[in-house]
């Protein structure tokens, strides 16, 4: 689901990929390099006395229900102390058991739970705690499970000839890095780019998981990585990210500005979409200037009101789920987020849960807030483009074995 609001809000977009859509520069520290976690008292968290973390606790419990079935040594991510205290599934057993005893919608009980079982840490890198906070959402478009006279644009599934290579297996210095391509004879070559895929390199009749009417809708579904397809019979199909072609991402907002088709201070998701729809004769070439291509799979059937499944395989909760970089922070960890509301510009201080990942979410000082589904959610996600601070909450060591843990002050 990724700034100086006054200076950049009109130029840069938010979201797991929305910020990249416009080619925004990251106004915080480098995305590579070690993170430092500085312990703080719970009472030092900005806004904590007025916190209403019951909804985030419910999201945390849903993560626990998934994590409890993982092997004890299942890696959840994190580095340094984050890995030591929260990097394996077994480290969450105690706090997950305790979380289930808190009554639903009990904000007071939720506050006591977090104070009792967790130690907050301010996330910093290179001496800075300035995090980049953005937003993402789940698009909703009309389409069909099969091609028909109206729905002619395919959403492709993962091709069988796509090869993913773990570079760390060849060079430990490249651990965590991959290369994506396809076999050509005895060699691995780059996978087909967007232009090649759109012009017949892959057979959509063999790979399509759904069909939509508007190629611009299909493009933005790839930007977000998941979405809802409103089918002709009134039902909803969920599609989610299955993989990508490995080509570099080129933001088309930057292309439109470079070609003087949009003003630099008018680059938003809405303005880009409007331009593409108003210029169908040029839209395909502009979209093809981004060689990156995303493949989909159908998601498990979920209630219509449920959010899409995130990286942990549980439904995302609007306002409570965030995407993070698991090289630095573990999936499933609660994160106290301090930033600015994109609509009211008031302080936004709330508990969230790391339940998702995003290709544009890189570095420890990076979070992407999930806003929900549909057009209204897209407005908030597109406007969410701010600096802030992240405090990751890690299980206190005694929590896994001492049920009489006392709240931290």
TrEMBL record:
Residues 1-22 form the signal peptide. GO terms for molecular function: hydrolase activity, hydrolyzing O-glycosyl compounds; peptidoglycan lytic transglycosylase activity. This is peptidoglycan lytic exotransglycosylase. InterPro entries: 3D_dom (IPR010611), MltA (IPR026044), MltA_B (IPR005300), RlpA-like_sf (IPR036908). Residues 140-297 form the Lytic transglycosylase MltA domain. GO terms for cellular component: outer membrane. It is an enzyme of class 4 (lyase). SMART domains: MltA (SM00925). It comes from the Bacteria. GO terms for biological process: cell wall organization; peptidoglycan catabolic process; peptidoglycan turnover. Keywords: Cell wall biogenesis/degradation, Lyase, Signal. It catalyses: Exolytic cleavage of the (1->4)-beta-glycosidic linkage between N-acetylmuramic acid (MurNAc) and N-acetylglucosamine (GlcNAc) residues in peptidoglycan, from either the reducing or the non-reducing ends of the peptidoglycan chains, with concomitant formation of a 1,6-anhydrobond in the MurNAc residue. Its EC number is 4.2.2.n1.
